[in-house]
Amino acid sequence: MFERYLAALEYPAEGGINIDDPKEFRNIILWLEDQKIRHYTIEDRANLRKTNSAAEWDPAYEKYKLDLKFPRNLQSKAEELTWLFLYAIKLEYSDNVDRYRPMTAARKLDEEKKATAAPEIKSTNPFDNIDFTSKDFEEGSRKLAEKLGVAYHPDHLVSLRASGRVISTMLNKDVLKEPIITGKPFPIDEGIGMGYEKDPDLEKAARILRLLQIQSLRKLQTAINETIVSVQNITADPRTDTTLGKVGK
Predict the structure, then answer these.
(1) How many CA atoms lie within 13 A of 126 on its CB side?
(2) What DSSP line would sit under 115-146, residue for residue?
(3) pTM exceeds cut of 0.70
(4) Residue 64 burial class via C-beta count within 10 angstroms: exposed 0-12, middle 13-18, buried 19 and up
C-alpha cells in the first residue's frame, strides 16, 4: 500500500510494512521523525523511542500529531501515515530541490531502464545488510556502550560513535602492548580552584574538562616536537658544494 512512499523516502526495509502491527507502526513513525522530519530535538524524541510501551508511546504520538498539526479529519492509521509520508516527502524535496527539479517522469523511467540493464553487483561488506534503525541494533549499541563505560545518550548512533572512539584509542594493538599504569589515581574529588566551590558536581566537571584540555595540549606539544625533530633531521647535515670554496685572495 505504501511501497512508493517507502521507496521515495529510501526506507531500508523490503516488502512493505504492516501498520496493523502496533510495534511496526510505532517504528515507522519513529523512523520518519528520526530520519526525515526531525521536528523534535533528539532529547524530545525520548518517548517516541519507547516503542515497546504503549502506555508511554501512545500519549507521545498524540502530542506529536498536535505539534505537527495533523488534519483533524483523519480517521485511521492508514490516513495518518499517508499524511505523514507526504509531509516527509515534501520536506525531502525542499531540502534537495536542486537535485529533484530536473527530474521528469520520462527521465526517471530512462534511469530505471539503465539500472535494470546494468549487471547487479552484490556487496561482500556485511555492514551493508545491517538495519541501523532496528531495535536489535539499537539495543546492541547501548549494551556495547554500557560495557565500555560510555555515558547514556538518547541517540544510539551517537553512543556507537563514542564506543568506536573508546575502542580505537584505548583498545588498539599499540595501546594494549603498553605496560599497565600503576600508582595512585589523580585525586579528582579533592581540592578547589575552578570557581564552583558552592556546587561540588559542577566543580568536579570543571576539573575533568581542565584535565582533558591538558591532555589535548600535551598531544599537541608531542606533535610539535615530532615535527621539529623531523625538520632537524633534514637540515642538520647539509651537503657542501666544495666548488664554491675559495682560498686566499
Answers:
(1) 0
(2) HHHSPP-----GGGG--TTSHHHHHHHHHHHH
(3) no
(4) buried
